[in-house]
């Protein structure tokens, strides 16, 4: 499945649900003192929170004739929520640790590690009392290290570079102040290398 298919599918679902939710304020029930037991009744009592996500990414191209290793790891984020009517904005700072390796021809092994540090923004639209659609991006820099070994020889390199991402996904309330987050990110790490596509799954908490 390519990136256009993923983005189109998530986007169409989000827009359809947004159109349905836009007819009324999703938070109106809580503002008038409704006695509803949903986790979202107190979901945004606090404006701050954190998240932890697992990430798995694959390279979208074949740069320089090489199929680069997939990357997997985790991302830790701190965020601030800014309510604005029936929607809210989220500002975040994110730290990640990713690794991956691939063997070519049974002889040559390529291993790489990537540590991204990025500031993020997302626009969040509540679709129901327990689901939210989000769309946003991140920008920052990353430190990377790669190592190629084979035939008793080994070469390596480490450096840092800018990085940016676009992201889309959904949040589902699973507890009073806890969301299950499922999303997709397309991330550019190197200017001369095609982007990586990540599936992300994790949890977000409000303090």
What can you see in these coordinates?
The chain is mainly beta and 207 residues long. The chain has a single domain (3-206), classed as Porin. 11% of the residues lie in helices and 62% in strands. It is built from 2 helices and 8 strands, in the order H-H-E-E-E-E-E-E-E-E. It has helices at 3-21, 28-31, and strands at 48-59, 71-84, 87-104, 108-126, 131-150, 153-175, 178-188, 196-206. The protein has an 8-stranded antiparallel β-barrel with strand order 1-2-3-4-5-6-7-8. The radius of gyration is 20 Å and the shape is elongated. It starts with a helix and ends with a strand. Residues 15-42 have low confidence and may be disordered.
Essential attributes:
207 residues; mainly beta; Porin; 8-stranded antiparallel beta barrel; 2 helices; elongated; Beta-barrel_OMP; OMP/PagP_B-barrel; Outer membrane protein beta-barrel domain-containing protein; signal
């Amino acid at each position: 499945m390519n990136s256009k298919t993923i983005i189109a599918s998530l986007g169409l679902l989000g827009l359809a649900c947004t159109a349905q939710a836009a007819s009324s304020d999703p938070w109106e029930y809580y503002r008038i003192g409704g006695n509803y037991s949903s986790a979202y009744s107190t979901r945004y009592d606090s404006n701050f929170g954190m998240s932890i996500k697992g990430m798995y990414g694959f390279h979208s191209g074949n740069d320089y004739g090489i199929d680069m290793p997939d990357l997997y790891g985790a991302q830790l984020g701190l965020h601030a929520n800014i309510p604005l009517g029936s929607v809210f904005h989220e500002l975040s700072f994110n730290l990640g640790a990713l690794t991956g390796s691939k063997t070519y021809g049974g002889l040559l092994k390529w291993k790489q590690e990537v540590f991204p540090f990025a500031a993020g923004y997302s626009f969040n639209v509540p679709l129901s009392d327990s689901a939210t659609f989000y769309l946003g991006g991140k920008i920052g820099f990353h430190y990377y290290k790669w190592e190629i070994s084979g035939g008793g020889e080994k070469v390596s390199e480490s450096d840092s570079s800018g990085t940016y991402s676009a992201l889309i996904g959904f949040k589902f309330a699973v507890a009073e102040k806890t969301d299950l987050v499922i999303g997709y990110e397309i991330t550019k790490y190197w200017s001369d290398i095609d982007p990586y596509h990540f599936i992300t799954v994790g949890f977000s908490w409000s303090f």
